[in-house]
Amino acid sequence: MKLKTPLSAPLDRVREYWNNRPCNIFHSKKEFLSKEYFDEVEQRKYFVEPHLPEFADFSSVKGKTILEIGCGMGTTTISFAKAGAKKITAVDLSEKSIEIAKKRAEIFGFENIEFYHANAEELSKVVPLEKYDLIFSFGVIHHTEHPEKIIKALRPYLSEAGKLKIMVYYRYSWKVFWIFLKHSGGKFWELSKHVAKFSEACIGCPITYTYSRRQARDLIQANGFKVVSLMVDHIFPYRIQDYTKHLYRKVWYFRWMPKFMFRFLEKTLGWHLCITAVCE
Ligand SMILES: C[S@@+](CC[C@H](N)C(=O)[O-])C[C@H]1O[C@@H](n2cnc3c(N)ncnc32)[C@H](O)[C@@H]1O
């Protein structure tokens, strides 16, 4: 999808990109904004990203307070609510995503979720300061101009015994390797540009950073957190042309690859770097 206006400020372009196509909006062909639509979006997201429920550890949030950064259409937000979270504060830069997520909460009857349309780099300007048991952010901070500002902004919101769980994209991944082979024409010095362009389902994401394990650890630990676990996971194995028609046919080499080998590959060259941190 092309951007309609040439926007200069990077964050305006990021907002416009996610407003044009909120994350996972085409995950269902059911009536848009219906309960069935949201159920299918959820089912499809966790089918394609099976490590996500495990990382989010929904079963552990009963009675807890959660701050979610970059909630998108609210898939994990609603899963936290379904799992019995006491209170959820969900933030996103895209007003369109927030609108959809709000509607979703309404449909599922959750009144304990507060939504904020905000730039998480400047969280305290919008979201009242209080301590949360869990701060969760999945696939978000690498899309903003200054991810380090988000990490810094988050620290005051985490309770002393709380956890920060955050997923960023992994640099030494199958996906980056594949983008290099397919789109860079061998120009490794332009790789970052190509990674941003092809990182998402919708071509042309304005900002996408990738991190090595060390860079991710340093980013988080520079801001008063201590990383307690860091794991790589997730390779998307399906043929894109089938996937867009909601068919799940793997590309030929993944079809033939033994499951254990595929899992090994995911755990070493996966696209998602899932990090858990606590207060230092
Ligand atoms: C790839 S989507 C992920 C959405 C959701 N976490 C999920 O897994 O479905 C990235 C989201 O990050 C949001 N985002 C990007 N930069 C942001 C910022 N500075 N502050 C708040 N949200 C931001 C975008 O609007 C978008 O909804």
Protein described:
The protein is α/β, with parallel strands linked by helices and 280 residues long. It has a single domain, classed as Rossmann fold. The protein has twelve helices and seven strands. Strands 3-2-1-4-5-7-6 form a seven-stranded mixed beta sheet, with helices on both faces. The termini are far apart. The N terminus is likely disordered. S-adenosylmethionine binds next to helix 1 and strand 2. The site of S-adenosylmethionine has 21 residues, from helix 1 and strand 2.
SSE blueprint:
Elements: H1 10-20, H2 35-48, H3 51-56, E1 65-69, H4 75-82, E2 87-92, H5 95-107, E3 113-117, E4 132-138, H6 147-154, E5 158-169, H7 174-183, H8 191-198, H9 213-221, E6 225-233, H10 240-243, H11 252-256, H12 259-269, E7 272-279
Parallel strand pairs: 1-2, 1-4, 2-3, 4-5
Antiparallel strand pairs: 5-7, 6-7
Bound molecules: S-adenosylmethionine.
S-adenosylmethionine binds at residues 14, 18, 23-24, 70-72, 75, 91-94, 97, 119-121, 138-140, 143-144.
Q: How helix-rich are the residues, as a percent range?
A: 25-40%
How confident is the prediction overall: mean pLDDT?
A: 94
Sheet/helix structural class: alpha/beta
How many strands? Answer: 7
Which ligands accompany this protein? S-adenosylmethionine
The dominant shape is globular
| Element string (H = helix, E = strand) | HHHEHEHEEHEHHHEHHHE
Tell me what portion of residues adopts beta-strand conformation: 15-25%
Query: Strands across the major sheet, in which order?
Result: 3-2-1-4-5-7-6
- Uncertain spans, ≥5 residues at pLDDT below 50? 1-7
What number of structural domains do the residues give? 1
What is the top-level CATH class? Alpha Beta
CATH superfamily: Vaccinia Virus protein VP39
